[in-house]
Automatic annotation (TrEMBL):
Pfam families: DUF4331. This is DUF4331 domain-containing protein.
Length: 484
């Protein structure tokens, strides 16, 4: 096995979005639900706000009330959204105060010492809520309706981040109260929804990878331990998750026999922003207006990191799938394999020689024929899922997905336990050529090498039920009893 180049799925992947972390999408997942009894559903997960430390107070990691977070679904292969789920957030400061020396003075924290054990609990000084619209057709001009819970309520609470075990002794139970059953306009089957902090659902050896693959002992020959040889630099990081579980029948095109859907997530902010020189509350630091401007985009993992050239990374984040022909050369003539060859030429590693790389076009732009390619497809970058392929139960999933014989995994959608770093490294270096998919074995001299970043990932790291991602790491892990 060869330890080789990889990066986090979308953590600070472009120069502009690195300065707007609250709008930075880190990972996107779309898979047939494998929770027992929920197999007819599709789960969509969009993670935002990367590299959260559990101890990151006192403000922690609220989503941006001036941003628009969206999950898009294309169900006819034309590279345009047919269904969009739009999330807007609001933050309310309760202005809790203490009486100090006879004066009532606002406290400096987002918690006030009261209990945090239910929705909108008395212990919170800041309440974060959100609303969700379903848009059918174009995301800006289509018809839109509000998502509600069975009682008709259309405003939902987001749990506060996992501040610590003294403030929130049972965070898992507290967060679970924020999983909502909801009614989707145009869908007869109720859905489920959750928004809140989770443990980062990705694994990658970041630091040494970015330092020109500066691993201490990179394996250049078969080594049974290579896939577990490096640290996971995200092992102690959290993210903020937006998760929906929707009946598959409500996502495919009405009346169509094509079971394939495409998906991606974006974040947009108003075009104009002026900093307020004299803010008088926490929601008045800027004045914003103008048209929505997209600043983040994520479908297939790792695309903007290791496929798109540096000069076009911001452009890609502002683009839509329908305009992806402008980035075609990055897929047909990729630079990552050439970089791998340069770094490991001494070990005999060689990049594939088939140009254009049509094997990569099928993975990233059209879907794989017979697996997840729509009946009619416009080449474009997004995650594609064949909703007719049954899910595989937790414990039986293969972390390398399709290339290891598990057609319910990546690149047929993406599950939390799919090790997309290792999968994409191997595909980039010609794994599909060894399988005679779009190229021949002779085109990929190193196609059989088991490339890995050494940060192991499989479904053991995830839960067996919605929202699947695990409880976030607390800022203060010690309990009150352990301190006494």
């Amino acid at each position: 096995m060869l330890a080789s180049t990889a990066v986090a799925s979308s953590h600070r992947e472009a120069p502009f979005i690195a300065g707007m972390p609250r709008a930075d999408a880190t990972d996107f997942y779309m898979f047939r639900s494998y929770e027992p009894g929920r197999e007819k559903f599709v789960t969509l997960v969009a993670n935002y706000l990367p590299l959260q430390d559990g101890y990151g107070g006192p403000n922690y990691f609220q989503l941006d009330p001036n941003a628009l977070y969206e999950i898009h679904v294309d169900n006819n292969g034309d590279a345009k959204e047919d269904i969009t789920f739009q999330f807007r957030f609001a933050s309310t400061n309760n202005n809790d105060s203490f009486v100090v020396g006879g004066k009532k003075v606002p406290i400096p924290l987002i918690i006030n010492g009261g209990a945090i054990n239910d929705v909108n609990p008395p212990g919170l000084n800041v309440r974060e809520t959100y609303t969700v619209n379903v848009v059918r057709g174009d995301r800006r001009t289509g018809t839109r309706e509000r998502i509600a819970n069975p009682s008709g309520a259309k405003v939902f609470d987001k749990p506060v981040d996992n501040i610590g075990n003294k403030a929130i002794p049972d965070y898992a139970g507290y967060a679970a109260r924020h999983v909502y059953d909801v009614t989707l306009p145009g869908c007869a089957t109720p859905a489920r929804m959750f928004v809140g902090q989770r443990k980062d659902s990705f694994a990658v050896n970041l630091g040494e990878t970015f330092d020109l693959v500066n691993y201490k002992s990179p394996a250049v020959e078969f080594d049974a331990n290579a896939e577990r040889s490096a640290r996971d630099d995200l092992a102690d990081k959290n993210v903020t998750t937006i998760a929906l579980e929707v009946a598959a029948s409500c996502l495919v095109a009405p009346g169509s026999a094509d079971p394939v859907i495409g998906g991606w997530t974006t974040a947009s902010v108003p075009q104009a922003r002026v900093v307020n020189p004299v803010p008088f509350n926490t929601n008045n630091a800027t004045k914003e207006g103008g048209a929505w401007t997209q600043v983040s985009r994520l479908g297939m993992p790792l695309v903007n990191e290791v496929v798109i050239g540096l000069k076009d990374k911001d452009r890609f984040n502002h683009s839509r799938p329908s305009g992806d022909t402008q980035f075609l050369a990055y897929v047909t003539n990729p630079t990552l394999p050439a970089l791998v060859e340069t770094l490991f030429a001494g070990a005999g590693v060689k990049a594939p020689t088939n140009f254009p790389r049509n094997d990569l076009v099928t993975v990233f732009l059209t879907g794989v024929p017979g697996l997840n390619q729509p009946a009619k497809v416009t080449p474009s970058e997004m995650l594609r899922l064949n909703t007719s392929i049954a899910p595989v139960a937790k414990g039986s999933q293969k972390r390398l997905g399709v290339i290891d014989g598990d057609n319910a995994g990546f690149p047929n959608g993406r599950r939390p336990g799919d090790d997309v770093v290792d999968i994409e490294l191997r595909v980039a270096m010609g794994k599909l050529c060894t399988l005679n998919l779009g190229c021949a074995p002779a085109n990929a001299p190193s196609g059989a090498i088991r490339f890995t970043d050494g940060a192991f990932l499989d479904d053991a790291a995830f839960n067996n039920a919605f929202p699947y991602l695990t409880t976030p790491i607390p800022g203060s892990p010690q309990s009150v009893a352990s301190r006494q």
